[in-house]
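Continuing the batch. This is chain 6 of the set; chains 1 through 5 are on the previous pages. Same settings as before, nothing changed between runs. Recording input and output for traceability.
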Amino acid sequence: MHVAIPGSNSARQAERKANLKYALFFFAVAVLLIVARQLGKDASTTSGQSTSMPNVQFDLSIQRTSEEVVPEGHQSKSDEYVVWFRLSNRGNHVVFYPVRSGTNVPAGRVVYRTSGESEWMALPSSKSEVSEATKPVDENPAWIEMPPGGWVDGQFNDSGWPRGEHAYAVDLKLEPSAKAIRFISPPYHFTAN
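Output for chain 6:
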């Protein structure tokens, strides 16, 4: 024989309602955190840096090759800069980068823009010899794997012309057969002496 205890069903129902309220609360918090994370990713665009390659970073160091004194507002023909860079994979996934033939240095190119709001453009060709960093990247380059924690160093020459912000652009892939994503270094600019 089954005897019902008065009030036990109402206590269980009250407990179920309380548990349901807790579950809905935690579900709403989880949804808000996911939405906030997505919005944070969209808002994290830094000046010119692609957000499609998270945890990949450029470090740059720039030095003028000729230390001669140039009158203010003028630029000598031999005015040139050497830019050393390190491309680092600080993420947990492999990244692939194109290389110039016979090296393991990323095949990239120097780009520039006249203001922070304008698009990055390839450097205009000049009558002087074109450096490796301004040549277009090969149509079918070899792609090298950069493991998590890996890095590659390289250097290129930059004439400093035209004035404005310059950067180094490299195409990267998350998989060898994936579409390449353009990754742009932090911008740098040259000041007249």
